[in-house]
Specification:
Blueprint: H1 3-12, E1 16-20, H2 24-32, E2 37-40, H3 44-47, H4 59-72, E3 77-81, H5 91-103, E4 109-113, H6 119-127, E5 132-137, H7 140-143, H8 156-172, E6 176-180, H9 184-193, E7 198-201, E8 209-212, H10 214-218, H11 222-226, H12 243-259, H13 274-279
Parallel strand pairs: 1-2, 1-8, 2-3, 3-4, 4-5, 5-6, 6-7, 7-8
Helix pairs in contact: 2-4, 6-8, 8-9
């Protein structure tokens, strides 16, 4: 999968499937399920590393998790998320880190959250041959610092602002735009106005593709686990499986059999030859 193939999918009206992954087995499963894009998101901070906020995620964290994902993927486009602090200081810093994600991490593109103020950064990255997936709407990296986790584009003025930024991102060379927690009508208008695909997460059905966090959709998210089924999940999350129950039961069965002296039995053990046993 490459950028031109994604553009062709939009033109043909084919939906784009994006799934996050943070390790080798997760990436294998995502690709086997038919993901077009596998995103190593900074959401790994919440669902894998146990951080309270994604702002704690470092460049080293993303690099560490991108490498096994890239080794697993043969067809999908691997995108590395640029964490908070990896591109805000300067264009040089952003270029250096983006190059590391591609050169060392094995990613094919990078994603970063965009406000109107850092639009020139997209141009700088794409001019250097770095494919950029831009992220607008709700910006998780800074949402808690400013306005909180709220739906964006629910009034005409803010929807128009988002549309303007999306258009500038297309001009700057971004190959796609993630719309997070954007009113469905605004997301539909933005999608219709762009030649590049939009990827929605809580942005309605009219986006060109959809993304969900691996752990959310299979029932392994930290909120779900901590609440044993009653943890908080954003409105846009749809859980397609209950992997936590399957895994918990398997682990529990193992513990029960060990304590009950059932495992291991002869079929799971190795034995010496009779003559060797006599020598022993």
């Amino acid at each position: 999968m490459n950028v031109n193939q994604l553009l062709a999918k939009k033109q043909a009206g084919e939906k784009i499937v994006v799934i996050t992954a943070y390790d080798y087995p997760g990436a294998l499963l995502a690709e086997q399920a038919g993901a077009d894009i596998v995103l190593v998101g900074d959401s790994l901070g919440n669902v894998v590393l146990g951080y309270e906020k994604t702002t704690a995620v470092t460049v080293a964290d993303i690099l560490h998790h991108t490498k096994p994902v890239a080794r697993a993927i043969k067809k999908a486009l691997v995108v590395a998320d640029m964490p908070f602090g990896s591109y805000q200081i300067s264009t040089e810093q952003a270029l250096s880190n983006a190059i590391r994600f591609i050169k060392e991490g094995g990613a094919a593109a990078v994603k970063l959250e965009v406000m109107e103020e850092n639009l020139p950064l997209i141009t700088s990255l794409t001019k250097q041959g770095i494919p950029v997936m831009a992220h607008i709407g709700l910006l998780p990296q800074t949402a808690s610092l400013w306005h909180g986790y709220r739906c964006q584009g629910r009034d005409a003025a803010s929807a128009h602002t988002l549309m303007k930024i999306a258009g500038k991102l297309e001009e700057a060379g971004a190959f796609s735009v993630v719309l997070e927690c954007v009113a469905a009508e605004a997301a539909a208008a933005i999608t219709a106005s762009l030649k590049i695909p939009t990827i929605g997460i809580g942005a309605g059905a009219e986006c060109d593709g959809q993304v969900l966090v691996f752990h959310d959709l299979v029932g392994l998210s930290s909120g779900y686990l901590s609440g044993l089924g009653n943890g908080y999940e954003p409105r846009f999350v749809k859980r397609y499986g209950d992997a936590a129950s399957l895994i918990r039961q398997a682990l529990s069965d193992f513990a029960t059999e060990v304590r009950g002296k059932i495992y291991p039995d002869n079929t799971h053990s190795f034995f010496m030859e009779a003559e060797e046993l006599k020598k022993l």
